[in-house]
Design a protein that fits this description.
Blueprint: H1 11-24, H2 36-56, H3 61-76, H4 80-87, H5 89-96, E1 118-119, E2 122-124, E3 135-144, E4 154-159, E5 179-183, E6 189-195, E7 200-201, H6 207-215, E8 220-221, E9 225-230, E10 237-243, E11 262-263, E12 266-267, E13 273-276, E14 279-281
The structure holds 3,4-dihydroxybenzoic acid (DHB) and fe (iii) ion (FE).
Fe (iii) ion binds at residues 109, 111, 200, 224, 226.
Length: 285
């Protein structure tokens, strides 16, 4: 008797896929500053703080060498998107979105892919016929901060499967699985059938995992659903929804949870869990 091989994503596999996705997508969006003074001030400040940490902790030469080796390996494995989105992005998000009056944003993470299936307001995400996990419906309305319903808004949604893996970044999951771009109805309403995602663990076999293990941290993110909500004339909202009582909610390795983003699923008429969340968008500045 033969057993089918179990393909567990590796850090280098997920990392290089995330690096490629970044180069093709997010890395093309938006222009950074070319203001020499701003670059000078920021780069000097960052380097100065590294120097300070080295002095304060009396870094040794073997430690400096280990850090240098580790940094080289993070790049070789393509793990920079994983590392940065877990340990740094939450602060960027906090700074950029501090002035929003509508729904709270949180990190995008490394696993967004554009161009997914376009779906109507009431829909089921593409999934395998034997997709594991409890069915879950996310419904709600997209509105502006002044309460105007935003008919035709889009909810671009992506989530991990019941094993905590994302399509496009792990072997053996069909392309586009548990991803879709949903157009809300004329009243901004949507009802998306998916599954209850599982918590996500950063691959531990790579350099980022090595740091996490060496420091005695854990590598978990609580179960979450990613969304990017847009409507013409409004600031796009990138956020994630979590689940009340979910494991790792209070110790997310990516520090990306917020109390306003926690769902309370309830059994719907047919026994399927339903979570309602209304997305409130800020006008473009
Ligand atoms: C990472 C993965 C995620 O699913 C997420 O939401 C944020 C960060 C990561 O591995 O870097
Ligand atoms: Fe995620």
């Amino acid at each position: 008797m033969t057993t089918a091989p179990i393909h567990i994503p590796t850090a280098a596999g997920s990392g290089s896929a995330a690096t490629d996705a970044f180069r093709e997508n997010r890395g093309q969006r938006g222009a950074a500053t070319t203001d020499q003074q701003r670059i000078d001030t920021f780069a000097r400040d960052v380097l100065g703080r590294i120097h300070e940490a080295i002095r304060e902790h009396h870094l040794t030469y073997p430690e400096y060498t280990a850090v240098k080796k580790w940094l080289i390996e993070v790049g070789e494995n393509g793990e920079w998107p994983l590392f940065l989105d877990v340990f740094v992005e939450h602060v960027v998000e906090d700074v950029v979105n501090s002035g929003r009056r509508g729904s709270k944003g949180t990190i995008e993470g490394p696993y967004y892919l554009p161009g997914q299936a376009e779906l109507p307001a009431t829909c089921t995400l593409p999934m395998r016929s034997d997709e594991k996990g409890d069915p879950l419906v996310l419904d709600g309305q997209v509105r502006a901060v002044d309460g105007t319903p935003l008919g035709g808004a889009t909810v671009d949604i992506w989530l991990a499967d019941d094993d905590g893996y994302y399509s496009g970044f792990a072997p053996d999951i069909p392309a586009g699985n548990l991803r879709g771009v949903v157009t809300a109805d004329g009243e901004g309403r949507f009802a998306i059938r998916a599954i209850q995602p599982a918590p996500y663990e950063i691959p531990k076999d790579g350099s980022v995992g090595q740091l996490i293990a060496a420091a005695g941290w854990h590598a978990w993110r609580p179960a979450h659903i990613h969304v990017m909500v847009s409507a013409p004339g409004y600031r796009t909202l990138t956020t994630q929804l979590y689940f009340r009582g979910g494991e790792w909610l209070d110790s997310d390795v990516a520090q990306a949870t917020k109390p306003e983003l926690i769902l309370d699923p309830r059994p719907g008429a047919d026994g399927v869990l339903v979570s309602t969340y209304d997305f409130v968008l800020d006008p473009e500045q």
